Amino acid sequence: MLWPSVQQLVKSGPDRELVQMYPYRSAAPATLWRSLIKGATRELTFAGYTNYFLWLEHANFGALLRQKAAAGCRVRFILGDPASPITRQRELEEDVPLTLSTRIEVSLSELAKLRDTTIETRYETGHVSLSVFRFDNDMIVTPLLPGAIGHDAPMMHFRRCQEDGVFDRFAGHTEDLWAKGRDVWTIPTAEVQHAQA
User: Fold this and answer.
1) pTM (two decimals)
2) Of 185, 62, 194, whose CA–CA distance to 123 is shortest?
3) CA gap 63, 105 in Å, rounded
4) Which of 13, 50, 52, 112 is the most buried (most CB within 10 A)?
């Protein structure tokens, strides 16, 4: 080998999809998120349980989402159901004043301002311990540790390089969540009948 050190710098195996890893989500530069969101042209999927931090950390986030949707980018949010027993259990584990359900409600209030767009929002409680954010062929994944809140979770940045790689595995998980989810803005038939009675 002429340059043995180069082999360590150029990834060639399945791990080549891992762009960067951070010990905490809060350790990643805010510019990374902004560049990934702005750079996406086909798909933005935010499968965080609350997605609350997005509005706090990104100025004019709603306006940016509106622009993306108007330009033809598919924008989807998957949130936890604030009334779910799974949400309540996680709140007990986190034990913080700003509860999980409150953070979800803040996101819902922001998303309600975008209901005149093509942005889609669903509830799915099967991702309370794993957040996946997709930006075309880039992805951020944060596995939540027991008792920790989102910004304390480890964070991984992936870029799709192959079929059935790590990126596709997480993308498949997100699509499964979406398929099992229920639209936030649609009232179930049983609730409508109860309200009319």
Assistant:
1) 0.86
2) 185
3) 19
4) 50
